[in-house]
Design brief:
The two termini are about 50 Å apart. It is built from 16 helices and 28 strands. The chain folds into 4 domains: about 5-100, 3-Layer(aba) Sandwich (GIY-YIG endonuclease); about 120-310, P-loop containing nucleotide triphosphate hydrolases (Rossmann fold), CATH 3.40.50.300; about 325-365 and about 425-560, 3-Layer(aba) Sandwich (Rossmann fold), CATH 3.40.50.300; about 570-660, Ribosomal protein S10 (Alpha-Beta Plaits, 2-Layer Sandwich), CATH 3.30.70.600. Helix content is about 30%, strand content about 20%. By secondary structure, the chain is an alpha/beta fold. The structure holds adenosine-5'-diphosphate (ADP) and zinc ion (ZN) (2 copies).
């Protein structure tokens, strides 16, 4: 009886053998139901070994091999195996991550019909649908088209509105015309319905599948199968779409390649952007990474020639880049965080019937409620964080664990009635703006106001229809939207990032400010960006005023090199959490001992430290950083080290994970 070797979604770094009376090589890559423990699990057949690791009589038979679906092709299995290997995750968990949940159940069948021929002829656009290219766009496109076929990484750098998306669409048209599939990744599809519409409008005859976490499991499974069967022409999706099987893959596009949401922050902490590059190499197809502010990792690759740099220096439409000005807030008395020049600028927009956006990266009314009499603060009982004052629904809410309660009328400790919200978030700014400009329609856009997709759509529609004069928003606002009447962006509290301990904080701040500033003046009206700061002489702001990403990147990379931070080194973080901090730290100490025993001089091993936010949802967290100058050295070390860590005796209640190329350190 043949043995089948199955990846089962359990947190163990091994495969499991079963028996099947009729399995053949043809079943490799098929979903399978197997008995596991006291229940059953859905897994994937990865091999039919000649000989198992166990005596035959100890093996159990599989329950069911799902043959009504096409099997997953070997390149897909390699992709998933790579993810497991590179991120040092159990293969079964990598399979579970990459397969949509519904797929592992029988009876989910593709209902798609094979797509009609794609109505694009040799990549030429029908008049009226495509704009004539700008000279810069034409250059970029000519360069790409002149390149030899096969793998290449293009880094397309262009400010918001420079026409990057137009480039993606033209390249996609070429690929579709050649009968191939396009994979297009976006950071958050929910925030970019405009892009999906644009793709659909451009390729009306193409079969477009959109895949993201907000889609119902059945729809996701269906899209996955359509891609697998080769019916889908374009797969448009968020990071998980990078695992879509694409037999005719011809091109991968990664929009906003710097965006943090490409890195998964739980389970297998993979970077969809990095996986996309690996996959392009594997399939020998080009991949284009696009951004106004590329990640310094990608930027460095472009500098040393591994990636090919393409530039779109100007906006595609006539409007100039917004004018960025700094407001030195040391010179003014602020009114709920807003300076008189910002207020005046908003007033001027109101008079002209234009929109303003006030950007503050903190939702809620105030980040903390405090009692001035006894020093009580609205600490979260579960986290090392304050519960945030939400005046809109009168709640105190922890943004990390969700714990909430009503806002107390008096201090819970001393009974003082004069308790005060300290600091400010979007709600407070919203309230103040409404008071300052009583005739203006003030609209708040943050995760509270846009909790459901329907509410988010309604808000965006209201803005597009001109039903708002002043927008108050968090970074949620800064992505992808096109608001033609928006001509002013003011930012509050940006300096906080300059003081942050994370070495990536300046990079994120620059990206964020460029992106949110890019919202201003997209159409025929010039835009203005006002940045309130106490450190107007900071070099980051100097680069920002000049829209000079190069200068920023150069100086930031100098710092990184001096400190041997990525991209000049490669990092991995071992994190542990437990009810008691000592348990977590104790485990990391043991892990460090194991690391030292490996005596790998290519790897630097740091001490275990409590995480900056130590307590989260009643668990105490600590981490241990390891670092090497070469990716290969780090990978070799991790493989050996984790084998030893898996062999450690783990105290009850302890959880651990490894994060390769961590974004938060
Ligand atoms: P990005 O992706 O860089 O933000 P887009 O491709 O979305 O830029 O282009 C910004 C705006 O300019 C869009 O409204 C788009 O339709 C328009 N646009 C892009 N390229 C051209 C062009 N060659 N001619 C006219 N309009 C263009
Ligand atoms: Zn008190
Ligand atoms: Zn909490």
């Amino acid at each position: 009886m043949p043995i089948v070797r199955v990846a089962v979604p359990v947190p163990l770094p091994q495969l499991f053998d079963y028996l099947s009376d009729d399995a053949t090589q043809e079943d490799i890559g098929r979903c399978v139901q197997v008995p596991f423990g006291r229940g059953e699990k859905n897994g994937l057949i990865l091999a039919l070994p000649e000989q198992g690791d166990w005596a035959l009589e100890r093996l159990k038979p599989v329950t069911h091999i799902q043959r009504d679906l096409p099997r997953l092709p070997s390149d897909w299995l390699e992709l998933v195996a790579f993810a497991a290997r590179y991120y040092h995750a159990p293969i079964g968990e990598a399979v579970a991550l990459a397969l949509p949940p519904g797929l592992r159940r029988p009876r989910v069948r593709s209902r798609g019909k094979p797509s009609d021929a794609v109505a694009v002829d040799n990549g030429e656009c029908q008049i009226g649908i495509c704009p004539a290219l700008t000279p810069a766009q034409a250059d970029v496109l000519a360069t790409c088209r002149a390149a030899p076929a096969g793998f290449a990484v293009w880094l397309l750098v262009g400010v918001t509105g420079s026409g990057k998306t137009e480039i993606y669409l033209r390249l996609a048209a070429d690929v579709l015309a050649a009968g191939k599939q396009v994979l297009m990744l976006v950071p958050e599809i929910a925030l970019t319905p405009q892009l999906e519409e644009r793709v659909r409008a451009r390729f009306p005859a193409a079969h477009i599948v959109s895949l993201h976490s907000e889609r119902a499991p059945v729809a996701r499974a269906r899209g996955f199968v359509q891609a697998l069967e080769g019916q889908a022409d374009i797969v448009l999706g968020t990071r998980l779409a990078v695992f879509t099987p694409l037999p005719r893959l011809g091109l991968i596009l990664v929009d906003e390649e710097h965006d943090a949401s490409y890195k998964q922050q739980e389970g297998i902490r993979y970077s969809a952007r990095d996986m996309a590059v690996w996959r392009a190499r594997q399939r020998n197809v080009p991949v284009m990474l696009g951004s106004a502010t590329p990640s310094l990792e990608s930027w460095r690759h472009a500098q040393n020639g591994r990636y090919r740099l393409l530039n779109l220096p100007d906006r595609a439409l006539a409007s100039a880049l917004p004018v960025v000005r700094l407001i030195d807030i040391r010179r003014y008395k602020l009114d709920e965080g807003m300076s008189p020049p910002l207020r005046d600028a908003i007033a001027a927009r109101l008079e002209r019937g234009e929109q303003s956006l006030v950007f503050i990266n903190r939702r809620g009314y105030a980040p903390v409620l405090a009692c001035p009499a006894c020093g009580w603060v609205s600490q979260c009982p579960n986290c090392s964080a304050h519960r945030v004052v939400h005046l809109a629904d009168r709640r105190l809410r922890c943004h990390h664990c969700g714990a909430e309660s009503a806002i107390p009328r008096a201090c819970p400790d001393c009974g003082n009635q004069d308790i005060r919200p300290l600091g400010r978030g979007t709600q407070r700014v919203e309230v103040r703006l409404a008071a300052l400009f009583p005739t203006a329609r003030v609209l708040r856009i943050d995760h509270d106001a846009a909790r459901t997709p329907a509410r988010r759509e309604a808000l965006l529609a209201a803005i597009a229809a001109g039903e708002a004069d002043i927008l108050v928003g968090t970074q949620m606002m800064s992505k992808g939207h096109d608001f033609p009447r928006l001509t002013l962006v003011g930012t509050l509290g940006a300096d906080a990032s300059l003081r942050a301990a994370d070495f990536r904080a300046p990079e994120r701040l620059f990206q964020q400010l460029m992106q949110v500033g890019g919202r201003a003046g997209r159409a025929d009206r010039p835009g203005e960006v006002l940045i309130q700061t106490e450190v107007p002489a900071h070099p980051l702001y100097a680069s920002l005023i000049r829209h000079d990403f190069d200068a920023f990147a150069r100086s930031e990379l100098d710092h990184r090199q001096a400190a041997a931070f990525p991209p000049f080194s490669y990092q991995a973080m071992l994190r542990a959490d437990a009810p008691e901090l000592a348990t977590a730290v104790g485990f990391l100490r043991q892990a460090k001992q194991e690391a030292i025993l490996l005596a790998d001089s290519a790897v630097r091993i740091f001490d275990p430290v409590p995480m900056r936010m130590t307590r989260l949802a009643r668990r105490e967290r600590a981490q241990l950083l390891v670092e090497a100058d070469q990716r290969g050295a780090l990978q070799n070390f991790l493989a050996q080290w984790l084998e030893r860590i898996y062999a450690l005796r783990i105290q009850r209640g302890l959880r651990w994970h490894v994060d390769v190329d961590p974004m938060e350190v």
